[in-house]
Design goal:
With about 290 residues, this protein is α/β, with parallel strands linked by helices. A hairpin with a 7-residue loop joins strand 9 and strand 10. Helix 6 packs across helix 10. The protein is globular and about 55 Å long.
Length: about 290
Amino acid sequence: MAAGRLLDGKAIAAAVRAEVRAGVDELVAQGHRAPNLAVVLVGNDPASASYVRGKMRASAAAGIEGETFKFDRDLSEADLLDLVARLNEDSSIDGILVQLPLPPHLDASRVIERLSPDKDVDGLHVINTGRLWTGRDGFLPCTPAGILEMLRRSNIETRMRRAVIIGRSNLVGKPLSGLLMRKGTDATVTVCHSRTRDLAAICHEADILIAAIGRAHFVTATMVKTGAAVIDVGINRIDDPTRDRGYRLVGDVDFKAVREKADWITPVPGGVGPMTIAMLLSNTLKAAKRLISG
């Protein structure tokens, strides 16, 4: 059996970003301002800072204007909530993203719920969650939306297919299950987690297997059905003394072994990650169009 084909998140994301850029250029040609994204970063976590820089670079390349509001980790919750309220009222800002995780003394749920749902381009507000689950139009969480877009653009059939998601987080597992069950997508979905009995057997039934559990190489070849599409959401650091930085990034899937059984598989890095940023840009353009249309 030939090794599984790569689901190239970089290439698919590039196509999405090009479409966003065309949409932004069209808005500007019509006499409207470019979309504007505000990103809030609290603390000095290197990974969060790197993610924000990547998002802002991608925004600029797509013609989206942006500003990062950066604060020390001791910012009070009251001050953060006040900032979000001001950004909500600022008509020059179309989308707001609060980079997670926040420092422990800040209640992320309270902060996200302070966002205007119509500027919540990360798709995490409870109102947008409700819209997702009731089939109404709203902002979809970027990683689940990116996974679905990747499947669609790769012509991977979801209708009447068995999808298994390992992980029940509010960021990926739960919203992705809702998207995969929507009419038009029509997958039959099982959501698993660390307490799932017979997890390996359930995974082996999946036509589409999504790993989002945060454990390096958790999914082994014995857990994967021959011919499955395997989507690896995990990003884990493991020690590697051969690398200058002393570590390397791997996913939740044992890539080399699983690729021998899967028809499709995402690499880490270069799979789901670029799609997450691309869908953030798509949501920001959508927010700007909503504001224009009133």
